[in-house]
Amino acid sequence: MNSEPSELKDAAKLALELGHTDQELIFRNYRELVKPEQAEKYWNIRPAKSFDTDPDRLIKVQEAAVLSSVDPTFIRKAIAHRELRVVILGPKAHRIRLGELHRWWRSRQTKAMI
């Protein structure tokens, strides 16, 4: 859908873009469910500008879990089984390179598709 928030006020146009045959579904299910201020706030959600993609950046296991949406226990098991390499900075201060996390994640996704 290519509409801007201001264009969404035209129910006929919105119904056409969504592939509906008429406006009835729009009015029945969506009309006035949120206030215009809430809609404006939603349509202005943007990703953070400072997302760090440096492959050499070191991250903690917990941060790796958040970035990959994987349980931290699973990541720790991958480290223990040497599926995921880490940088050891001290006795329990393991860090994962962001690039290594991406490599491991891609290989895990490829295995899941096979």
Report what the structure shows.
The protein has about 110 residues and is mainly α. It has two domains: about 5-45, no CATH class; about 60-114. Helix content is about 50%, strand content about 5%. It has helices at about 10-20, 25-30, 35-45, 60-70, 70-80, 100-114, and strands at about 60, 85-90, 95. The protein has a three-stranded antiparallel beta sheet with strand order 1-3-2. The two termini are about 35 Å apart. The relative contact order is 0.10. The mean pLDDT is about 75.
Give structural attributes:
single chain, 114 residues, mainly alpha, 2 domains, 3-stranded antiparallel β-sheet, 3 strands, 48% helix
How would you summarize what this structure contains?
This protein is mostly helical.
Structural class: mainly alpha
Which outline best applies?
A: elongated
User: How far do the termini sit from each other?
Assistant: 33 Å
Q: Any idea how many domains? A: 2
